[in-house]
Amino acid sequence: MEESSDIVPAVKEINPEKRKINRSKKNANMVVAEGPKIIMDMQFGALMNDHTTKKLISQISLSYAFDKNAKESLPMIFTSMDDKWRDYINRVNGNMWSNKIIQYKDVSVVDAFPKEDLIYLTADTDNICTSLDPHKCYIIGCLIDHNSHKNITRDYAERHNLRMERLPIPEHITMDGRQVLTVNQVVEILVRYNNNKDWTETLLQVIPQRKNPRPVHPIKQSEQEKPKEKPSFCRIV
Which residues lie below 8 Å from residue 155, measured CB to CB, with a gap of 6+? Predict the structure, then answer.
């Protein structure tokens, strides 16, 4: 019987300084669009338990990963940040995210920006987002609620006299099941559309295949990019 070797292959250590340099090079190559901003409204933390909070943080991490690698990235600004949120985000290396596109603010969204610059994205409105205004900030309510807090973002927007808009999903595609999106899917839609200016193409790329997304107006197959399967759906209110 052959004896096992006592020689253990050396594990190549990753130099932290080299990793930092590589990250700096990637950040230097990042192109930030001179256009709209994405606001991640973090005020709803008390409405989620630890399990749903971790799910949300995972979606936020996916949002950052997609945005930073886009042809043109959009600024992502987190409002209503507190020590709890900072701790959760740091667990997914949020303290090392590029400040070229990431900002953290302790104050609420209405205290951070002029109200006339804000648009709250919510499914609970008849106002359709037909395009992205380069001078506006588009707010995503960061809450995984499983329908237990219906209309909460609409009520907040109405209380503070903020304009509301919904993504133009039924105007461009049909799908099986409900039109509910994860936080990272909303971010991906905004970033993709800002790059390609095509809602149909964007939605077909983002909506998971299991939802069988189909264009309202047929397009050539060659113009479609095959959508990839995405993380499980959670309602964004």
Answer: none
Q: How confident is the model at residue 8 (pLDDT cuts 50, 70, 90)?
A: very low
Name the burial class of residue 106, with classes exposed (0-12), middle (13-18) and buried (19+) by CB atoms within 10 angstroms of its CB: middle
- Domains along the chain? 32-215 (3.40.1280.30)
Secondary structure E strands in the chain: 37-41, 76-79, 102-104, 118-121, 137-141, 163-165, 173-174, 214-215
Q: Where are the alpha helices (DSSP H) in 101-235?
A: 109-112, 152-159, 169-172, 183-196, 199-206
DSSP state letters, 97-125: S-TTTEEE-SS-HHHHS-GGGEEEE-SS-
